[in-house]
């Protein structure tokens, strides 16, 4: 779906303004100035600054999920390889936008209404992973006792927090090492059998 140019300009500007000033510190006028649009045009597209914030988060979530293919595999090793690729994609995208994701998490922690709205907002990555893991449980590739809807939230939160911590490391961010660490954590939490176990 293509948004009207002014609306998208506001969203793009809001990413920078919210990242710099946080949700609480940002003002509508800061966003409209950064977008290069008339202040009054904001209210043509958004009722509140919080509504704009939710649009920023929705687009960020869509970008995180954009390149994740939906797939069905014939064996656990292929599923594990797909999971590793998904983790690598997520780790890379989260690292690239670390400051923005930090701001999103801070806004959710500081505002109950925002936290509730974010929880209720559809997340395409969560949906894709939940669907895939449900299928994997049916195939016996992960422990069937794993509640995929619950564990997916935990896996995404684990990845976000790990990348937030590593993005502060003065030694630099090693994508391969980070991907391996997170993928190992995911497979352990999912109770996947060892590679080649043929389950």
Automatic annotation (TrEMBL):
GO molecular function: DNA-binding transcription factor activity; transcription cis-regulatory region binding
Protein name (Swiss-Prot/TrEMBL): Transcriptional regulator, TetR family
Superkingdom as given in the UniProt entry: Bacteria
InterPro entries per UniProt: Homeodomain-like_sf, HTH-type_TetR-like_transc_reg, HTH_TetR, Tet_transcr_reg_TetR-rel_C_sf
Family annotation (Pfam families): TetR_N
Keywords, in A-Z order: DNA-binding, Transcription, Transcription regulation
Gene3D superfamilies: Tetracycline Repressor, domain 2 (1.10.357.10)
């Amino acid at each position: 779906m293509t948004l009207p140019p002014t609306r998208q300009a506001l969203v793009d500007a809001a990413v920078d303004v919210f990242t710099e000033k946080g949700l609480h510190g940002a003002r509508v006028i800061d966003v409209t100035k950064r977008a290069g649009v008339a202040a009054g045009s904001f209210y043509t597209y958004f009722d509140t600054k919080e509504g704009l914030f939710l649009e920023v988060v929705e687009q960020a979530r869509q970008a995180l999920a954009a390149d994740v293919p939906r797939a069905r595999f014939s064996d656990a090793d292929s599923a594990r390889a797909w999971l590793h690729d998904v983790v690598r994609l997520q780790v890379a995208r989260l690292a690239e936008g670390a400051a923005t994701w930090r701001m999103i998490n801070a806004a959710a922690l500081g505002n109950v209404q925002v936290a509730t709205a974010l929880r209720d907002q559809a997340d395409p990555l969560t949906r894709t992973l939940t669907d895939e893991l449900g299928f994997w449980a049916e195939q016996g590739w992960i422990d069937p006792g794993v509640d995929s809807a619950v564990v997916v939230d935990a896996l995404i939160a684990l990845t976000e927090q790990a990348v937030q911590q590593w993005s502060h490391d003065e030694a630099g961010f090693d994508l391969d090492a980070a991907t391996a660490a997170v993928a190992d954590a995911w497979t352990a939490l999912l109770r996947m059998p060892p590679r080649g176990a043929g389950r």
